[in-house]
């Protein structure tokens, strides 16, 4: 619970679709009860002219927005920015986003983790050169190299043979498809708060099926059905998600903590699957910045608790900085953050 008399102002800059899914009345009510007020940032006005925010929550990537954030940070060095654009950009490339996974060291668990075998193909010449991807075995998942959240970046394909490769358009990432029981684990991370849920995924592929299917099947996300499997729902009617064992929470939490520090991000999720060949082996296949948190049951509490943590820590740091500088100089504290009266004015306006 936030301190009595102290309210926090969270300015948010989101595209309309993201705004509608995330800024729900249920979130606003709970946040308000914890001393947190959400204020929509007007993209038609300069950010520096829009009030004394304690925190800026955003998911915009334009050059203009980057410049506005940089100017705002210079004038407001103590405002929390969620998150850094430089850190977010690492997730816009499907190769760099997963490189960090191999750098993590998670100990004291029976489970292990990694990423599927993958390569990047930059042009058609490399695509037709079998030596470039001889380490991969069909089937493979073809994904656009760029993962910026656009509709185009979600267009993927399951490729079953060489003929299917010829239908692709580089630059693309070819990732080993691993049988995983038709279930993917989506792990949502908001600071120290971690929630793992399970979703239906692409069905396993047997050797027999590999010989009889078409060259290529398109889909938009790993947790979506392919066009082919949308027709035949029997597989999913037989598969009960309730029967799928969740990965140990301590294991998932340790991975989330490692990724959070390595990526220097607070709001993200990662997709993880259990390798059917080894029940204690998990593969991380994707990492997304500021994903669809509202799809997660009880997202309002997790988001609100996270923001409360951020704001309380910010206040402690400001008070500490004040005493370390010169408590006798009232201007010293003013320079380090918004006054309470400024925050109230932001909310009221």
Task: Using brief descriptors, characterize the structure shown.
single chain, 349 residues, alpha/beta, Rossmann fold, D-amino Acid Aminotransferase, Chain A, domain 1, 2 domains, five-stranded mixed beta sheet, five-stranded antiparallel beta sheet, 14 helices, 22% strand, disordered C terminus
SSE arrangement:
Elements: E1 8-13, H1 16-22, H2 25-33, E2 36-40, E3 55-58, H3 63-75, E4 80-82, H4 85-89, H5 96-99, E5 112-114, E6 118-121, H6 124-128, E7 140-144, E8 156-159, H7 162-165, E9 172-176, E10 183-190, E11 193-200, H8 207-212, E12 216-219, H9 227-231, H10 234-238, H11 249-263, E13 267-274, E14 281-289, H12 299-325, H13 330-336, H14 340-348
Parallel strand pairs: 1-2, 1-3, 3-4, 5-14
Antiparallel strand pairs: 6-9, 7-8, 7-9, 8-12, 10-11, 10-13, 13-14
Helix pairs in contact: 2-12
> Which descriptor suits the 3D outline?
globular
The SSE order reads: EHHEEHEHHEEHEEHEEEHEHHHEEHHH
Number of helices: 14
- Taken together, the total number of domains comes to 2
Q: How far do the termini sit from each other?
A: 24 Å
Averaging pLDDT over every residue, what do you get? 83
Poorly predicted residue ranges: 223-239, 326-349
Q: Strands of the biggest beta sheet: in what spatial order?
A: 5-14-13-10-11
CATH superfamily assignment of the largest domain?
Answer: ATP-grasp fold, B domain
Beta-strand percentage range:
15-25%
Q: What is the CATH third-level topology name of the largest domain?
A: D-amino Acid Aminotransferase, Chain A, domain 1
Binding site for 1D-myo-inositol 1,3,4-trisphosphate: 18, 59, 154, 186, 288, 292
Cofactor: Mg(2+)
Protein name: Inositol-tetrakisphosphate 1-kinase
Subunit structure: Monomer.
């Amino acid at each position: 619970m936030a301190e009595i008399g102290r309210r926090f102002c969270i300015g948010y800059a989101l595209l309309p679709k993201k705004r509608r899914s995330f800024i729900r009345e249920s979130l606003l009510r709970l946040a308000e009860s914890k001393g947190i007020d959400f204020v929509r940032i007007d993209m038609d006005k300069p950010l520096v002219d829009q009030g004394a925010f304690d925190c800026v929550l955003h998911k915009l990537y334009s050059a203009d927005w980057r410049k506005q954030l940089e100017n705002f940070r210079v004038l407001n060095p103590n405002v929390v920015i969620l998150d850094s654009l430089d850190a977010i950009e690492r997730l816009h490339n499907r190769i760099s986003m997963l490189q960090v996974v191999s750098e993590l060291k998670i100990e004291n668990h029976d489970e292990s983790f990694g990423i599927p075998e993958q390569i990047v193909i930059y042009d058609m010449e490399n695509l037709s050169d079998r030596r470039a991807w001889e380490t991969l075995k069909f089937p493979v998942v073809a994904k656009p190299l760029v993962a910026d959240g656009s509709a185009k970046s979600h267009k993927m394909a399951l490729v079953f043979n060489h003929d299917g490769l010829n239908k692709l358009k580089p630059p693309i990432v070819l990732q080993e498809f691993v049988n995983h029981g038709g279930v993917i684990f989506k792990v949502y991370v908001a600071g120290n708060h971690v929630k793992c849920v399970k979703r239906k995924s692409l069905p396993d592929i047997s050797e027999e099926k590999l010989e009889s299917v078409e060259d290529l099947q398109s889909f938009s996300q790993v947790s979506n059905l392919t066009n082919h499997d949308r027709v035949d729902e029997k597989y999913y009617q037989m598969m009960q998600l309730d029967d799928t064992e969740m990965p140990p929470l301590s294991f998932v939490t340790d991975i989330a903590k490692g990724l959070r520090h390595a990526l220097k991000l607070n709001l993200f999720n990662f997709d993880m699957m259990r390798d059917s060949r080894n029940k204690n082996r998990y593969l991380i296949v994707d990492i997304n910045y500021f994903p669809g948190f509202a799809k997660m049951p009880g997202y309002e509490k997790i988001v609100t608790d996270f923001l409360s943590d951020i704001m309380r820590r910010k206040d402690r740091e400001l008070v500490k900085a004040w005493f370390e500088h010169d408590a006798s100089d009232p201007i010293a504290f003013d320079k380090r953050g918004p006054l309470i009266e400024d925050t109230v004015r932001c909310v009221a306006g």
